[in-house]
Structure formats: C-alpha cells, structure tokens
Amino acid sequence: MRETGSNGAGDMIRRKVVQGVWSRVAALLLAMVAMASAARADAPTLTLAERLTPDLIAVVYPGAERVGKEEGNPKAAPVYKGTEVVGYIFSTLDVVRSPGYSSVPFDIIAGVDKKGLITGAKLIYNEEPHVRGDSIRTGQMATFLDRLAGFNAQGPNAGFMSLPAEYVGGATISARAMKAGIIDSAKLVLRARGGRPPVTAPTLDVETFTPATFADLTANKAVVNRSLTSGEVANLIKRAGKGGRAEVEPGPPDELYTNFYTALASVPSVGRNLLGINRYKASIESQPRGTHTILVASMGPYDVQGVQYLKKSAGNIYDRVRLVQGDKTFVFDGPHSQPIAGIGGAGVPALRSGALFFIPPTAGFDPLQPWTIELLINGAEADGTPWTVAAPLPYAVPSAYVLLPDPPPVPPYVEAWQGARMNVIVLCVALSILTLILLFQNELTKKRHLFRWLRNGFLLFTLVWIGWIAGAQLSVVHLQSYIQGPFRGLDLGFYLNEPLMVIIAGYTLVSLIALGRGVFCGWLCPFGALQELLGQIAKVLRLPQWNPPDWLNRKLWLVKYVMAGLVLTLIFLPPEASAVANEVEPFKTAITSKFIREWPYVLYAGALLAMGLFTERAYCRYLCPLGGTLAFLDRLHLVDMLKRRPECGKPCQLCAHSCPVKAIVPSGEIKMAECFQCLDCQVEYHDDHRCPPLVRARKHGIRGNIVLTTPKNRPAGVPVAARGAEGAATA
Question: Cβ–Cβ contacts within 10 Å for residue 199, how many?
C-alpha cells in the first residue's frame, strides 16, 4: 500500500493529539523537577547527639538504657546499661565519610556492642541516584540494613550477610558501599576504645578465655600425651645400644612405665582450664609479659622431675625433660620452673607429678612453630658411664588459639560477579545471538516474516529480562559516573561493580565504533524496546500516526543533542542539580522501578510512551540524552553494513518512506546517527515484490540479485548506505 502523506481532517487530528501530548509532557516534567527539589533532604549538619532521637536509638541499639554524649576520635556515643558501657552508636558520615555510587557521602547511624556485633543501622541521608526518590529501593535498602543486626564486624565473616547486596536490585553498588561503611566504621570505633588491635601477622591469643573440659582440650590437641609401657621402654633402650641399668628399671612388659602430657599453658583457654583461675593467675599471669609457659606432667613410675631436681646443690635441674625446636634445645632449672602436685579438675587423670616451665621472651622460642618435649630416660653402663634415651612428644599449638590477620576483603566487584554468574551467562548468550543477527543480516532479512518474529522476540527479551528482571538499563547516569570516576579517584573496581552494566556498556562501545549508535538504541535499550512494541500495538489498533516533515524532523533531532549537553554539563555542578536533571530519562520509572513511583514520575513516563503511540520512538529520536550522546559519537563508526543500490533516493523512495524513524532522507542517504539498525530497510531491499529494481528484474525473468552497492563499492555520486523500517511505500 502506498503512503501519500498526511492531509485534511486526519492530519489535523494527528497534530492536535501530538501537540496535546507534548504540552502535557512539559507540564509533568516541570512538576516532577519541582517535586524532586522539594523532596530533597539536606545533608546532616547537626552533631550526632542532636540527630539521635528516641525512635532512632530504639532502631540502632535496642535495649539501650542511656546514651552518653559523643566523644573520642572517631566520634561515637557510648551506650549504657546501668553504669556499664556496653557499646557505641556512631555515624558513618562522621567516621569514614564513604561515598556510594554518587560522589556524595551517605549518612548511616548504627550501633555496635563491645563484642563487635552490629546492633542496628538506619540510613539517614543519601544522594544515591538509584535510591533517592524510589520508594521500592528505599524500602529494600532499609530491610537490607536491618539484616545487618547481629553481624560481627570484627569476625572472619565480614563478607557475609543474610541478604546479599543484590537484594536491592539496581542499586547493588550503593548497598555494598553502605555495608562496608558500617563495618569499617564499627572497627575504627572499637579499636579506638580499647578493642582488639588489628592483627598484622599470626599471633598467639593470650587474651581470650573459653571454658573447656580436659576432654575438650585433648580432643583439639591443646593437650597431648604419650604413654609408654615397660616393654616399649626396654625396646627403646635396646635399639639405642645401651646397657647397664636405667634409673627406673622397666617392669613387666605390659606394665605402665610412664604417661606424660604437655600443653602450652600460657594460652588462657588452656592454662586456666587446666590449673584453675587462682593458680593460673598466681603462676602464669605473674610472669613477665611475653613469657611462654609449658606444662609437663606425668603418671606412672617414671615421673618428670628426676633425681637432679631433688638435689638442691645441682640447681634443681629437670634432667628428665627438655624442649627441642629446630636447632634450639631448652633445659629447665629451678628459677625457670614451678612444680605442681597435680592439675585436678573434672575428667582430669590422676597425674602423679608435673611442672610449669617458663621460657623468657628473649630465649628465641616461637610458640607458633612446632616443638617437641623429650622425656629423657636416664641410666648408666656397667662401668658407670651415664646414658640417655629420648622419648619425643611433638606439639603444635591448635589453630583455635592463633589470631590471624583479617583476610583482605573481597573487592565488591568480585562479590558482584560471583553473585551474577547466571545472569552474566544469559546476557552473553543473548549478545552472541545479537552479534549473529548483525553478521548474517543479509540472509535473515530476505525472510520478512521470520525476521519480524526474530526482532520482536529479541525486543521482548530486552524489555522483560534485561530491563524488568535484570534491571540492566544503561542510562545517562552511568555515563555521568563513568566520566566522573577518574576525577573522584575511583579505581578500576568501581567500573566493574555492575557486571551486566559493564558487559552492556562494553558491547555498546564496541558496536558504536564498529557499526554505529543503532545497535544499542535499536536492540539493547529496554525503554526503546517498550516504545517500539507499544508502537506496533498502536498500529494494529489503527491509532493515527504522525511523522514530522523532513525539515521539522531535522530540527527536532537537535533537541536530544541539547539535552545530552545539558545533562553532561551538570556533572560539574552540585549533585542535587544532576539528580533532578537525570529525571529527564524515564528509565528509572518505567524500567528499573516498573512504574512504582510517585505520580509525577509515572505520568511523565506514561506521557512519553503515549507520544510513541502516535510518533514512532518519539522520545528516542528527539529527547533522549543518552541517545544524543551516542548519536554524536556515531561519527566514529567504521563499517556501514546496510546495502544500497544506485536507484535508492533517485528515483526510488521506498526505504525513505518506510523507515519508521525517518533516518533516510529523500536523497536516499541514511543518517546513521539517527538510525536504530532495525534492518527494516534491508527487508525492503531484498523483497522482489516491493523493491522496484527487483520487481522489474522478476518481471523480466532475471534470476539472482541485481547490482548491489555498499559504501565501500558504491559508484561515485551514490548516497551513503541506508536503512529503514517496514512500511508501505514505493517510488
């Protein structure tokens, strides 16, 4: 069917409808800007004490009986139960001043008890572009922060939460930044107030006490032992080639000769449980700081004290025990030991004798490295020559009593990519399909109906999965952030925080340079897909359609460049100005928020979509700042894949009339900066029932294709390669 242009009553109706929609769009935009400005909260200027209300305290530190004045560096307010300080309330704005996705630091007031457990958190102020003004994400963020209660800011699970950051869909960078800000602030507040200092290397835990039974200590190898029968001792002596007699002669082979134990008693969770608190304080805590205490005890005929210990003139040498670590050997005497008659307690065997051996901090002993207690079985040859046979008992301090440095935090972008693995796979498959469509467009566009189903299917995927499910709507907000990143000192991790957006942005950049702006705008923009699908429904319903004349169309194209310039200029203005300008894009309302926002935003997005019912992709063509930016950069593209013939434009106007966005001018030239790569012109190009040169060739019985030209093989004077959309028009 041939389109002959708009005139008469139909033309008047179309103009009035479009003019009415445009005027309402302008009014709604003004109302929306005013609402956004009025709803803006000012950054906190009051002190923490002035900001703390009873309701806020009940959220961030439930059960607090009294909150003191903020003090210290960093500032925090102590929380009391009775007269005891049980925790602190702090503000991330006062402590770490973390920015999220925006360059403006957010303010979260939170509580932490003296054990390092977060007690609650409340978002007070933020300028996050995907959170402010969005009631859905604001509620999700509140729930996300509520679930932080009970989280150990000083523990090894510093990357775990009951809700992942992806719970706040479309604002995961903001969620991760807020979580990190709370944890980092809590650590700093506690460390400045006598909390555990940061551990920079493996360190013996000499502060923590955990109750444990003797069975518990032997089970985790905090206490180790070796039992020797008389027969085993006789074999040791024989294998060593010793004769004569031992100090304590072995008895019958199956009789117990000795059962000796050892433990690192300077660890409170070991020593206090073995000795009891009073003996532990008197014997071990009284030693110089850094002294290491080894407990050795035994049961059976052969004890650990020996003959020399009983001879006062010999200096109370323990000649039956020595400690070996590497090339160092430690022996003990009276000044560095203390005998114990037994260690007692429930479940403890009746140890006959024992001693505590003290190793000074300057002796070169490293308790974190394996060491061996050797029980020395002494004797003499028949001629009186003394000998010694060692029975070794290896020991290594259990890892439960070793403080390790906090593992380096997993970069937020790593966490993001791990959590988005399936979405990344789906998106990469979709982009691979799109790449194949573009590469094999010449064959696909020869089948009009197949291609229409293929294109509409991909547009539906873009709208539903990329837009509404995955929330991966690329917008000018991302462009602003990417440009601001280097000036805000942000590293590569900032750009990698949104996996799907990174992939789409990268694909858009490559396709922009290769083919032009139309790959993203025509195939990967969810709002653009929504407009096009609604436009097709409008045509099925026979709603009046209006396309501006060529001269007006060219002028309207300029509007999006002006919008792009204004929005990008606002990067260098205060964030509130930029936040208001970002609402020019309806993406946040229609795609990421799924129309669940305040009424001016919804009406504005609805009005833009309504325009698209009467004028194909009106917002994309004339208003979109992101589209304007990409159209400006389209001049960089390297390849024109859209095929043309010498007849295109002169005399044939089929593609120019059928292009739904009027990107093909009457001369036949395609304005690639305005082209959405819908490939409808290529469908017309291959249709031998519509394209005049092919129609003539078919009627004359000419088989195969006739002269094909592209920008690289086009004869002189033939316009640049063009593209269009399905429509009924002939030369």
Answer: 13
Residue with structure tokens 């309504």?
610
The residues that bridge with 373 in the sheet, in sequence order, are: 323, 393
Q: How far is CA 456 from CA 469, 531, 541, in A?
A: 18, 12, 17
Among candidates 405, 423, 414, 400, which has minimal Cα distance to 267?
A: 400
Per-residue model confidence as pLDDT tens digits over 273-288: 888 888 888 889 889 9
Are the beta carbons of 563 and 632 closer than 8 angstroms? no
Tokens 């309402």 correspond to 24
pLDDT at residue 2, rounded to an integer: 37
Which segments in the chain show pLDDT lower than 70?
Answer: 1-45, 103, 155-162, 195-197, 307-316, 342-348, 350, 352, 488-490, 573-582, 702-731
Q: Residues with Cβ < 8 Å from 485, sequence gap 6 or more? A: 494, 495
Query: Tokens representing 117?
Result: 């457990």
The CA distance from 177 to 401, in Å, is: 33
* Cα 148 to Cα 110, 140, 441, distances in angstroms: 10, 13, 51
| 3 state DSSP class of 74 | coil
Identify whether the C-beta of residue 254 lies closer than 8 Å to the C-beta of residue 229.
yes
Residue 246's DSSP bridge partners are: 379
pTM: 0.69
Read off the amino acid at residue 220.
N
SS3 state of residue 298? strand
Alpha-carbon distance 611 to 559, whole Å?
16
Which SS3 state, helix, strand or coil, does residue 233 take? Answer: helix
Q: Is the peptide bond preceding residue 651 cis, with omega within 30 degrees of 0?
A: yes
The closest of 105, 109, 82, 123 to 186, measured between CA atoms, is 109
Cα dihedral 483, 484, 487, 493, rounded to 10, equals -90
Can the peptide bond before residue 74 be classed as cis, meaning omega within 30 degrees of 0?
A: yes
Say how far apart CA 129 and CA 107 lie, in whole Å. 15
Angle (nearest 5°) at CA 97 between 94 and 101: 145
**Contact 74/65 with Cβ under 8 angstroms?**
no
- Cα dihedral sign for 551, 555, 560, 561? positive
Distance, CA of 597 to CA of 595 (rounded, Å):
6
Residue 32 to residue 37: CA distance in whole angstroms: 9
C-alpha closest to that of 396 among 223, 599, 268, 543: 223
In whole angstroms, what is the distance from residue 240 CA to residue 391 CA? 11
Task: Say how far apart CA 488 and CA 507 lie, in whole Å.
Answer: 25
297: enclosing H helix or E strand? strand 292-299
Computed on alpha carbons and rounded to an integer, the radius of gyration of the chain in Å comes to 40
Rounded CA separation 466/479 (Å): 18
| H-only helix segments in 395-447 | 412-419, 421-439, 441-444
Q: Are 106 and 98 in contact (CB under 8 A)?
A: yes
pLDDT (0 to 100) of residue 51: 87
Residue 432 one-letter amino acid:
S
**DSSP label of 520:** I
Q: Which residues fall within 8 angstroms of residue 142, CB to CB, at 6 or more apart?
A: 122, 123
The values of phi and psi at residue 180, to 5°, are -65, -40
* 648, two tokens: 């295109």
Instruction: Return the pLDDT at 5.
Output: 42
Give the span between the Cα atoms of 397 and 400, in whole angstroms. 8
- Which run of H or of E encompasses 209? none
Q: Give the DSSP letter of residue 477.
A: H
pLDDT value of residue 103? 66
At 512, which amino acid appears?
Answer: L
Q: What is the pLDDT of residue 529?
A: 96
Residue 42 φ then ψ, to 5°: -80, 150
